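Workshop exercise sheet. Pairs work together: one partner reads the sequence aloud, the other fills in the structure field after running the prediction. Swap roles for the next sheet.
Pair: D.N. / O.F.
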Amino acid sequence: MNLLNHYSDLIEAGCDEAGRGCLAGPVVAGAVILKPGADYPELDDSKKLTEKKRYALRELIMREALAYGVGIVTAEEIDEINILNASFLAMHRAIDQLKVRPEFLLIDGNRFKKYHELKYMCVVGGDAKYQSIAAASILAKTTRDRLMEEYDKRFPMYHWKKNKGYPTPEHKQAIAEYGITELHRKTFNMAIQLKLDL
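Structure field:
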């Protein structure tokens, strides 16, 4: 990744979310402000990294970033406001956690709901283009993965430790056999994904 910052003279936060396409669990977002001029070439889209690498980079981000935050929106909230708005809300909550106020936001994806009066730019595939977004994606995914592994202890029949709540055949088969839990989303993806062949 050659592009470190979009505006070098502004305090810039990268934002990304994880878990948008899941049947169960929360959507989680990260927001990260890297130190000005810092270069972390190992940062990349969290989906391209091994689990071991993601957790190593998580520690690096938490140690080296100027500021970072994580926002969580529950399955119940997702059902109330829909997954798109839940993704925006998770990002807003992550930005709320930043101990340094950003002046500009870099958002992974093509849509965003304005956060107060801050200027922002949406970047499709931004986690592979901007280090701050990549850092946010790593924080979001590792946080969510840990949550799903904890939930797996309560509901082992859904194999969340392995599938993290995504609509794998194994997960959908378990729903067919055992029904859903309070951690499952009852709208949006649930209705769509369960129509797929088991």
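Discussion prompt: The chain is about 40% helix and 15% strand. What would you look at next?
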